[in-house]
Amino acid sequence: MRIATSRCVIAMLALTTALAAGCSTSKNTSTASSSNGTQPKAAPGVTGTTIAIGFSYPDLEALAKTGLIKTDNGPYAALMKAIVDDVNAHGGINGRKLTLDTQKFSILDATNRLAVCTKFTEDDKVFAVLGGFNDVNSSLCVVQQHATILVGGYGGGFDAATLAKARAPWATWYPSAERSIDALIQLLDRNGEIKGKTIALYGQTQGSQPLIDIATKALETAGYHVTASAINNTPISDASAFNAQEKVIGQRFKDAHVDAVIVLNGTVPGTNFDAIDFHPSIFLPSTDLITPAAFTNPLGKFPLIAGPAPSANPDAGFNTPTMRHCRDVWKQTTGKDIKTQAQEQLLGTTTGNVGMSFACSSLAIFVAAAEAAGANLTDASWEKGLESIGSLPLPNAPVCSFGPNKPDCQDSFQLAKFNPAWKPNSSTPQYIPTGQPITHP
User: Fold this and answer.
1) Other CB atoms within 10 Å distance of the CB of residue 436
2) H helices within 297-378, ranges in order?
3) For 378-411, how does the pLDDT look when each residue is reduced to its tens digit (9 = 90+)?
4) Phi, psi (5° rounding) for residue 404?
5) Cα diameter, the chain
6) To which H or E segment does residue 228 belong?
7) What pTM did the predictor assign?
8) Domains (ranges, CATH) in the chain?
9) DSSP string, 53-91
10) For residue 376, with 0-12 CB atoms within 10 Å meaning exposed, 13-18 middle and 19 or more buried, which class applies?
């Protein structure tokens, strides 16, 4: 599993905003051939010799100053520049060189994120934004308001309802909300983890209702009954009010004798549930959403905390051909090695593993689709290129494929239980794989 100290930020991104997004085909028809047979005009950001792209990444230094969480994923901008330079050094994409603009965004300031979106789309007029944002509104700023391609993965995948609003292609290495929730429930059912349990669903951020609906349907299909559900509508930025509301929700579940909670759009509510002496089993649609709680929550007091990971092999993504190439490029550029996340934990510092995983995954998707699009690069041809990729093992999704109406690529899911014996900066594994993995189309 691709989990380590530096992975904390991923769930922090998920926690601070609603993650729900969705899947759709492109709604942007501006690049289609005209009825008189003339060629479509060049797409924004594309010339005869260049393709303009933007890469957004979280401002972790600013986040650390708030005291909410301190983590370092490596020099995102430098990591992306190194691998973009490598693409250009090998001829670019169908004869065009990539031009790159990098912008960091605030995890907690929506106005700042929208300004970054505007910088890319209105000022730079990029053809595509890579990396993305940690909230739906900023993502929709790119793909809906400005009809610009987005290849992202901060925080999680999409749900179909939100991506239906997109007017340009939107791709990610994460599974869609529908597939990740369905995979979680399949794994819990196969492993008997919720058999005989009184189940509740908890949406930890605003906009969680679609995910609760998806989970309810999946549970009912598998033969389970949802006893209670609740959504915490308090903004995470108001920590005191948010925590108070989470305790109220936990008490409500406790009074209903709930002993299994599935958390959607958030991370493990360990501290607040422990404060009211409520200790159910807790499940989330990804281990990425569990990791940060391990540093600040008394997870050992809970009987079981688990979620799906892309692989039981901690180095599966690290050793994909895509990541090996990106690591080699960084080594050639800087003389520095990128270590596994387990090695980084022992070192107590980052070597750029997480940052490169994000940069490498997003660039690999973009380049593969753009190369398949051919010389006439438009939104429509790029999307057709994406659908033609098939298998594409990535650092953040070692078993991954794209196809028609499938712009979310993670296909493999392995249930993993949090290991209460784990401690930071130790060799003890943070998660213990359980049961057999499943492949979810």
Assistant:
1) 11
2) 321-334, 341-347, 353-373
3) 999 999 999 999 999 999 999 999 999 999 999 9
4) -55, 130
5) 71
6) strand 226-231
7) 0.85
8) 5-30+41-177+315-413 (3.40.50.2300), 184-310 (3.40.50.2300)
9) EEEEEE-HHHHHHHTS-------HHHHHHHHHHHHHHTT
10) middle
